[in-house]
TrEMBL record:
CDD domains: ABC_MalK_N. It comes from Saccharomonospora glauca K62. Gene3D superfamilies: 2.40.50.100, Nucleic acid-binding proteins, P-loop containing nucleotide triphosphate hydrolases. Residues 4-236 form the ABC transporter domain. The keyword ATP-binding applies. Pfam families: ABC_tran, OB_MalK. Keywords: ATP-binding, Nucleotide-binding, Sugar transport, Transport. InterPro entries: AAA+_ATPase, ABC_transporter-like_ATP-bd, ABC_transporter-like_CS, ABC_transpr_MalK-like, ABC_transpr_MalK/UgpC-like, Mo/tungstate-bd_C_term_dom, NA-bd_OB-fold, OB_MalK-like. The keyword Cytoplasm does not apply. One of its GO terms (molecular function) is ABC-type transporter activity. This is ATPase component of ABC-type sugar transporter. SUPFAM superfamilies: MOP-like, P-loop containing nucleoside triphosphate hydrolases. One of its GO terms (cellular component) is ATP-binding cassette (ABC) transporter complex, substrate-binding subunit-containing.
Length: 364
């Protein structure tokens, strides 16, 4: 096992003006499960391929354990990779697929058999060891690809969207299996996905990427609860965080408030320097509670007009309009009311995040 340190990695592809990764630095602790998350084209795969040695950086440094491997050949890095396409060999049995890398390495046959049996047991593939991939389900094939990677005793496991070819149900069950397995193995893991649920569920930490840079790297709880900027808040969560922009003004009592265009919220005391300027409020749909008008008890609230009510089974999703801006609210499954109704939306101060509308950065 080993720590992975990435320092200022820059990569530009020929014919492409913008940097695929732009001075990316990241430290993955020994045994940590680090997820690289971000929209298509943000540079996740490029970063992973540089760690694997399949791409060389223009500048920067990659250290695995205590070795600088920036320009080392892939096979000298002691890592294993699982790709999205989980390319298993169709003409080899499951056992031969799993043991392939070990045999190439010249490991004695008895040891190969022992390790194949161990990995097959961990991944529940023992009954299929003599089968050929054509006679396996997608999930079983994917397990073969993972088994093939873990038998190698690598310092680092690299996975690029390994679940993306599985259907939704299989994905869900294999995600949990993978989490258990990697937890047991304790191998340092770098895992690429654009699926935020997968990232939050699997990662010890999640590095959220945008345009070749890491914009936030923290625990799943922190990136979800305290998005460092409006991009992260808008990328994580389904539906994502609500954003409402207003102007800081004094009300008739002389108190500073954020006015959204006829309705306002008290300004947090730490933001008084924003008097006269604009602020963006970020709040998660499930952090807002809703009731009829006239029952305010001092908690900050705004009025929202219900536009759409979508029953989702375990909850209902409300689309409301507050001063011309859309606010989504996740309400209890039993909540029903007519569209056009005016609702009181309670916004607990502890759940409100405030952002600079120009930079998009979290302010407190
Ligand atoms: P996805 O989730 O779609 O795989 P990603 O976040 O993994 O995206 P990368 O594949 O790393 O992103 O791509 C980063 C940027 O580099 C993109 O703008 C992409 O178009 C560009 N890029 C990637 N590979 C190449 C290549 N071989 N040649 C030229 N440009 C490339």
């Amino acid at each position: 096992m080993a720590e992975v340190i990435l320092k200022d990695l820059v990569k530009t592809y020929p014919g492409n003006d913008s940097r695929a990764t732009d001075e990316v630095s990241l430290t993955v602790a020994d045994g940590e499960f680090m997820v690289l998350l971000g929209p298509s084209g943000c540079g996740k795969t490029t970063l992973l391929r540089m760690v694997a040695g399949l791409e060389l950086p223009d500048s920067g440094q990659i250290v695995i354990g205590d070795r600088d491997v920036t320009y080392a050949e892939p096979r000298r890095r002691n890592l294993s990779m699982v790709f999205q396409s989980y390319a298993v060999f169709p003409n080899k049995s499951v056992a031969d697929n799993i043991g392939f890398g070990l045999r190439v390495r010249g490991v004695p046959a008895a040891e190969v058999r022992r390790k194949v049996a161990w990995a097959a047991d961990l991944l529940q593939l023992t009954p299929y060891l003599d089968r050929y991939p054509a006679k396996l389900s997608g999930g079983q094939r994917q397990r073969v690809a993972v088994a093939r990677a873990i038998v190698m005793d690598a310092d680092v496991l690299l996975m690029d969207e390994p679940l993306s070819n599985l259907d939704a149900l299989l994905r869900l069950s294999f995600r949990a299996e993978l989490k258990k397995l990697v937890g047991e193995l304790g191998t340092t893991t770098l895992y690429v996905t654009h699926d935020q649920v997968e990232a939050l569920s699997l990662g010890d930490r999640v590095a959220v990427m945008r345009d070749g840079s890491i914009v936030q790297c923290d625990t799943p709880t922190s990136v979800y609860d305290e998005p460092a900027d409006t991009f992260v808040g808008g990328f994580l969560g389904s539906p994502p965080m609500n954003f409402l922009t207003g102007k800081v003004e004094r009300d008739s009592h002389g108190a500073l408030t954020v006015d959204f265009g006829g309705q306002s919220l008290p300004l947090p005391t730490s933001l008084t320097s924003y008097e006269g300027r604009k602020l963006t409020l970020g709040i998660r749909p499930e952090a807002i509670s809703v009731d009829g008008l006239g029952s305010a008890d001092g908690e900050a609230s705004v009025r929202g007009t219900l536009q759409v009510l979508e029953p989702l089974g375990s909850a209902v999703l409300l689309t409301t309009e507050v001063c011309g801006q859309t606010v989504k609210v996740q309400a209890p499954a039993s909540f029903r009311t007519e569209t056009g109704t005016e609702l009181r939306l309670r916004l607990p101060a502890s759940q409100c995040r405030w952002y600079d509308p120009e930079t998009g950065l979290l302010l407190e």
